[in-house]
Design goal:
It is a single chain. The protein is α/β, with parallel strands linked by helices and 359 residues long. The protein is built from 10 helices and 11 strands. The strands form 3 sheets. The chain has a 5-stranded parallel sheet with strand order 7-6-5-8-9, covered by helices on one side. A 4-stranded parallel sheet has the order 2-1-3-4, with helices on both faces. A two-stranded antiparallel sheet has the order 10-11. Helix 2 crosses helix 9 and helix 5 packs across helix 9. The protein is globular, with a radius of gyration of 20 Å. The N and C termini lie far apart (49 Å). The chain binds N-carbamoyl-L-aspartate. The site of N-carbamoyl-L-aspartate has 12 residues, from helix 2 and helix 6.
Length: 359
């Protein structure tokens, strides 16, 4: 398989790598018992600084179904993090005991930072409101399994496009596939951030921004619903005003295509009513199960890679200081200051624009 040593963002993936990962995933689904000992003797470290059900459980289940052992935490209060240990030191330790690390953090860029200090592959299981690339693997697998192809699709993404990290990674990954167009459905306050819109333009894909789901639902091949991300709001009143802005009901689906896929990364918080669950077009629970199989495929690749310390960063350093309060560089001030692959005017951890310099 094409060598990939970390998965912190979609930039680490390629179409060829995805195809191989997916083929292996299909074989795992068809013959799970033949994979039961493929990671025997390996250890998987699970570091969850933020709550999780599906991502945490599906990674643990995936590792154990491959025969690997698992250790880690789902609440950092029980670790030396509560004594003030830096992310870099925690990662160095964890990497020295394990063969692959999965990290979820409320800080944007935490997985990028972790990968700078780890001898073993680092997987980003969500970094604040930034990226969530393994949810994207889950989403791609769901579309590929349920439709047979990920090409030539009209994809509606609805809800909190501003803070939804699954949305950001999904939109970015769709750049690997031809014929994709987007319907971006959100209130103005929750619209897609500039750095993701920039990716749509770079990929030469069409997009329409809309505030009304009803206006475009009949056009869609995929409807990707999302939760309004309460934990990312600074203003509770603003959250309350926006939280119920889209509610998908069975009735609204009457004019939708018969082969529409209704997806959701879950958990839901009222944005899909339970009467939709029985509709054959609703695939969000299957989606969660496919997530375990694609994560098995990913772990199988990563757990056998030789240990290797990443080379010191020397090429894309900057003197500019990120001022995004959610960026990992705000707390972990020792981190080398990096520029983004999207341009030298953006932070290499969170992709937000550096503040303008005044001379
Ligand atoms: C998502 C997340 O954590 O970003 N959940 C998940 O990993 N399946 C979506 C969400 O929390 O709304």
């Amino acid at each position: 398989m094409t060598q990939v040593r970390k998965l912190v963002s979609v930039a680490d993936m390629s179409r060829a790598w995805w195809e191989q990962l997916y083929m292996q995933c299909c074989d795992i689904i068809a013959r799970p018992e033949t994979y039961a000992d493929t990671c025997r003797g390996k250890l998987f470290a699970s570091m969850f600084y933020e709550p999780s059900t599906r991502t945490n459980f599906s990674f643990q289940a995936a590792a154990q179904r491959l025969g690997a052992g698992v250790f880690g935490f789902s609440d950092p209060l029980g670790t030396s993090v509560s004594k003030g240990e830096t992310l870099a030191d925690t990662i160095r330790m964890t990497a020295s005991y394990s063969d692959t690390i999965v990290i979820r953090s409320p800080q944007e860029g935490a997985a990028t930072a972790a990968a700078l200090y780890s001898e073993v592959p680092v997987i980003n299981a969500g970094d604040g409101g930034h990226f969530h690339p393994t949810q994207t693997l889950t989403d791609l697998a769901t579309i590929a399994i349920e439709r047979g192809s990920i090409e030539n699709l009209k994809i509606g993404i609805c809800g909190d496009l501003k803070h939804g990290r699954t949305v950001h990674s999904l939109v970015d990954a769709m750049g690997m596939f031809p014929g994709i167009s987007f319907y971006l459905i959100s209130p103005k306050e929750l619209s897609l951030p500039g750095y993701i819109l920039k990716q749509i333009k770079l990929h030469g894909q069409k997009h329409v921004e809309s505030e009304r789901l009803e206006a475009c639902i009949s056009e869609l091949d995929i409807l990707y619903m999302t939760r309004v991300q309460r934990e990312r709001f600074h203003d509770a009143a603003e959250y309350r005003r926006l939280k119920d802005v889209y509610i998908l009901t069975k009735k609204m689906l009457s004019g939708a295509k018969s082969d529409l896929l209704i997806m959701h990364p879950l958990p839901r918080y009222g944005e899909i009513t339970t009467d939709v669950d029985d509709d054959p077009r609703a695939v969000y629970f299957q989606q969660a199960r496919y997530g375990m199989f694609i994560r098995m495929s990913l772990l199988l690749e990563f757990m056998h890679l030789p240990r290797q310390l990443p080379p010191p960063v020397t090429f894309d350093l900057t003197t500019l200081q990120c001022n995004n309060p959610a960026c990992v560089t705000q707390s972990d001030v020792y981190l080398p200051k990096l520029v983004s692959q999207l341009g030298a005017d953006r932070c290499g951890y969170c992709d937000k624009k550096f503040p303008l310099l005044s001379f």
